[in-house]
Design brief:
Rossmann fold, Arc Repressor Mutant, subunit A, alpha/beta, four-stranded antiparallel beta sheet, 2 domains
Length: about 230
């Protein structure tokens, strides 16, 4: 099967050129022209996308915001940034939000392919490592089996409980944006889904209460933070 690429680039000429070039190299490439389209397409084909190329400066939602939202639920799919900027701060920000590499325009197509292939090799090597359970204080959590382990036994989580705890556990001691979390787990950040998420947060607090060092804190006006003292 061809590898499935998502390309987000608002420049018409470059986007068309890259799509043709990547397809000619055997990559099945979907080209979108802004950040909102990138997020929408990613959500529709999450499990089949193998590589993501993001222009940093795009309308509606920039590449950094797109990558940050994707990385809430997906730590593995490679992300390569394209930008006309060469500022060190922009490069650092790109890596901070989860980029695997960074290419400054203008660039040679051969360099783009070389970087893509290098990233794919690294990801392939990393994927051979056995997935471990996530430690949350004295508890253990297996997001793939949707099971929370404690001294009292095993607790099978519901789909929403598992998705929400996975986000929290993979971002321990970091603030999770409320709206981004709603979009990631519920697909929409409307009022009713927000009330539903509050109920699930309360359920998770109860499940985690066996270990007093664990706390899910409300960050007013922003979101939540899983704290392990």
């Amino acid at each position: 099967m061809k590898e499935h690429f998502l390309l987000a680039e608002d420049d018409e000429n470059l986007g068309a050129l890259l799509t043709t070039f990547l397809n000619s190299k055997g990559f099945q490439t979907k080209w979108v022209k802004n950040g909102e389209e990138a997020i929408s397409y990613y959500r529709s084909f999450t499990n089949s996308i193998d590589f993501i190329i993001l222009d940093v400066m795009m309308p509606e939602k920039d590449g950094f915001s797109v990558a940050k939202e994707i990385r809430l639920t997906d730590k593995k799919t490679p992300i390569l940034f394209l930008t006309a900027k060469s500022m060190k701060d922009d490069k650092l920000k790109g890596f901070e939000v989860g980029a695997d590499d960074y290419l400054t325009k203008p660039f040679a197509m051969e360099e783009l392919i070389a970087r893509i292939q290098a990233i794919i090799r690294r990801v392939g090597d990393a994927s051979s490592v056995k997935t471990e359970k996530l430690a949350i204080g004295a508890l253990a959590f297996d997001p793939h089996k949707s099971i929370l382990y404690s001294s009292a036994g095993e607790k099978k989580l519901t789909t929403k409980e598992n998705a929400l705890l996975t986000l929290l556990a993979r971002n321990v001691n970091e603030v999770l944006d409320r709206q981004a979390t709603l979009r990631a787990v519920w697909g929409d950040d409307n009022y009713f889904n927000g009330r539903s998420m509050d109920v699930y947060i309360a359920k998770l607090r109860k499940l985690l209460s066996e270990d007093p060092s664990i706390e899910i804190m409300n960050i007013h006006g922003i979101g939540f933070k899983l704290i392990v003292k």
